[in-house]
Amino acid sequence: MRAESLKGHLDGLLLACLEPGPRHGYAVIEALREATGGQLDLPTGTVYPALHRLEAARLISGRWSVADGRRRRSYHLTAKGRRALNSERADWRAFSAMISTALDGRLWPNPA
Amino acid sequence: MRAESLKGHLDGLLLACLEPGPRHGYAVIEALREATGGQLDLPTGTVYPALHRLEAARLISGRWSVADGRRRRSYHLTAKGRRALNSERADWRAFSAMISTALDGRLWPNPA
DNA sequence: TCCTATACGTAGCAACGCTACGTATAGGCG
DNA sequence: CGCCTATACGTAGCGTTGCTACGTATAGGA
Fold this sequence. Notes:
Oligomer: homodimer
Distance between the termini of chain A: 35 Å
Helix content of chain A: 40-55%
Number of strands of chain A: 3
Number of helices of chain A: 4
Order of helices and strands of chain A: HEHHEEH
Mean pLDDT of chain A: 97
Largest interface: A-B, 48 and 48 residues
Strand content of chain A: 15-25%
């Protein structure tokens, strides 16, 4: 998959990933990989900054804990995050329908 | 629509738009607008540089002409461009299926 | 001792769409 | 004639964002 295709769609993925319940960053990466059958194996340099962005935007909220001697930061959706997720879903449906029909190419006006 | 959602997907749209036959840049913008029912109204600062990129990559080829006293650059798909378009279509199907199922959120593993 | 898995992080880069301009011609309207 | 709109091309610079390549640290098995 080309790097740019994901741009603008990662946030929705992360929010959806946190919808069933809180996860920490490393678990988010694993969940993404499992849920997509290995198609999406995001590097930490993509996921951690994205989680920080989402937290700064108050869409998710994190807190530190310790398990097995390792510190973790678990994130959960905020109310605003849930609304954003619904919005992302609606946006995605419209966007993907648009691209699909355009790429399909049955509705292009005749070239002059 | 957010600006970033289109990133990485514009090239495919432009190639698909040129598939029925040659168009010049301004006509590409109008075709995009008509084909999407006005959803996609791209600024010239988006389309012209993108066409230049595609031409530099040999996916399209353009030539100057004059109509009604105005110069135009008409672009048509190259063989490489047609292959790229098919590739973009396959990529899009895989990508959109992935995002759709992930956003839908029925396959997330249970949070620990 | 060394490697792997787990777990967090950042600096810097590259790509790309968009904003805001600028140039020019044709044609309609007052 | 002046002005506006549509047509038609273009670019400089910006902001966002995902990725590469690092760095830090603990736990546990070989």
